[in-house]
Amino acid sequence: MEKVRRRYRFAVVGYVVMPEHVHLLFGEPERGDPSVVMKVLKQSFARRLLTGRRAAADPRQSSLWDTALTEGHVWQHRFYDFVVLTEKKRIEKLRYMHRNPVVRGLVLAPGQWLWGSYRHYATGEKGPVLVNETQKAELRVRKIA
After folding, report:
1. What are 24's strand-pairing partners?
2. d(CA 41, CA 26)
3. Sign of CA dihedral 127, 35, 53, 18
4. With respect to CATH, is domain 2-123 assigned 3.30.1360.200?
5. What is the pLDDT of residues 105-121, one digit of tens each?
6. Distance between CA atoms of 124 and 117, rounded to whole angstroms?
7. Could you tell me the residue ranges of all domains in the chain?
8. What is the DSSP code (8-state) at residue 25?
9. Which of 119, 94, 107 is nearest to 23 (CA)?
């Protein structure tokens, strides 16, 4: 997600990666559009995950990704976009996203879910994806020899 954030230059407000879908609240990308961002994000993650899991699959071990391995896909087929215009709605969406792993019974509290931005907001912990930092989303230009 961080590589895609940098490539398309957008600010991530919040995220939660679930076994078959992702919640992503982000600003308008400087490159592309939200559909392109979601397509690239989902495809690149799925390719890496499926390739790695197939190579290391152990039938004796349970995994959140077993269905993805057997069906050959990871994510739900489409995404739903929603334009957030107010601070109240931003908070509502973040709460919904961060509580999703709890509602699904994957953890007892939002802070236990490692694949989301909850701890950024609760404790200031820096995770693998920069949250609310647009200045870090820079285009790197390769020097031509």
Report:
1. 15
2. 13
3. positive
4. no
5. 999 999 999 999 999 99
6. 10
7. 2-123
8. E
9. 94
